[in-house]
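Sequence, please.
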């Protein structure tokens, strides 16, 4: 069956020149974007129950923009002034760049990894006698604590926000040829919103091993997979599918 409509379970890209725009124009597709999950911050009361004293930590490990936003949100709500001497350990350049939203970059001690926290191991070890705080979501990839534990540093996790299933009830009677997922949470959201969902002729596109496993567990048929050696991005995988089978 020909692919005419696609629903991507993420926010719409800010740029009009995104790969999805090119894909849409080239193949005359209707591509909609709708986050199947969203992030909600924990309240100051909920964070206080964790009994974390922010003043005990002068080293903050930041792995995402959400972690940046919610660290500064909660410290402001709790009326804690983050000292200028605080050191920030950012997982990537993108996270470090985003940090400028809250601090004057050139006046702070900011350390940046190329792609992961592991890239900063040599820097972490320089401060191994100090305490580190890791702001996170309610769900944390095991690879991050495993990496920090391996380094032997003194770190504390601080869940400051949570991933929540979005209300998709308005899509109940809307049909798409392809549903695109990027996380197990997206698959979970699909079935929480539509417990009686039947795949039938709907094609499922899954990005990453964890998403594939979640789709398999939910007994979904995966028609499009990324990344692969031939299709490192989701848009490339969709285009290959359309070119080979979707017409």
């Amino acid at each position: 069956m020909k692919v005419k409509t696609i629903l991507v379970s993420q926010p719409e890209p800010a740029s009009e020149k995104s790969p999805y725009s090119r894909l849409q124009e080239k193949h005359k597709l209707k591509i909609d974007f709708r986050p199947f999950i969203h992030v909600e911050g924990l309240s100051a009361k909920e964070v206080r129950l964790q009994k974390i004293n922010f003043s005990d930590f002068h080293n903050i490990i930041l792995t995402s923009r959400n972690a940046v936003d919610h660290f500064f949100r909660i410290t402001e709500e709790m009326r804690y002034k983050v000292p200028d001497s605080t050191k920030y350990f950012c997982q990537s350049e993108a996270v470090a760049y985003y940090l400028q939203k809250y601090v004057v970059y050139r006046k702070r001690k900011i350390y940046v990894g190329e792609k992961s926290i592991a890239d900063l191991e040599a820097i972490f070890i320089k401060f191994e006698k100090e305490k580190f705080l890791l702001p996170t979501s309610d769900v944390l990839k095991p690879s991050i604590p495993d990496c920090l534990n391996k380094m032997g540093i003194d770190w504390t996790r601080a869940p400051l926000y949570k991933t929540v299933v979005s209300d998709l009830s308005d899509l109940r009677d809307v049909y798409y040829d392809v549903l695109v997922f990027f996380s197990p949470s997206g698959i979970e959201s699909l079935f929480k919103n539509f417990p009686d969902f039947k795949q039938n002729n709907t094609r499922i596109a899954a990005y990453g091993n964890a998403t594939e496993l979640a789709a398999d567990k939910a007994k979904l048929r995966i028609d499009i997979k990324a990344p692969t050696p031939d299709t490192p991005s989701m848009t490339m995988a969709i285009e290959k599918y359309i070119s080979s089978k979707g017409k």
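The chain has nine helices and eleven strands.
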